[in-house]
Amino acid sequence: MLSSSIIKGIRVSKNLSQEDVGKMLGLSRQRYNSLENNLLQTDFTFVFKLLKILKFSESETDTFFHALRQDLKSYIEK
Questions:
Q1: Which of 56-74 are b and which e, b meaning 16 or more Cβ less than 10 Å from the residue's Cβ?
Q2: How far is 36 from 40, CA to CA, in rounded Å?
Q3: Given this model, what pLDDT does residue 41 score?
């Protein structure tokens, strides 16, 4: 999924591991990994917390939501 790749890319660019972000969210690394890789199956509360923790810029947020729309289209078409 494109949106998951964007989240991962931003996380990595900020030198944060999945374990780091998981701790910030109060989750295990394994649980965070599952959520990062399956964004379409999570609730928006998690997505908004993640964007806040990773301090997405406005352009990063726009790129992410564009990718999420593309993922949703692909999901619906299956």
A1: beeebeebbeebbeebeee
A2: 10
A3: 85
For 9-61, the pLDDT digits (tens) are 999 999 999 999 999 999 999 999 999 998 888 888 999 999 999 999 999 99
**Three-class DSSP category at 52:** helix
The third-level CATH classification (topology) of the domain covering 2-77 is: 434 Repressor (Amino-terminal Domain) (1.10.260)
- Alpha helix ranges (H) inside 14-56: 18-25, 29-37, 44-53
Predicted pLDDT of residue 22:
96
CA distance 74 to 51: 22
Rounded CA gap, 56 and 54, in Å? 6
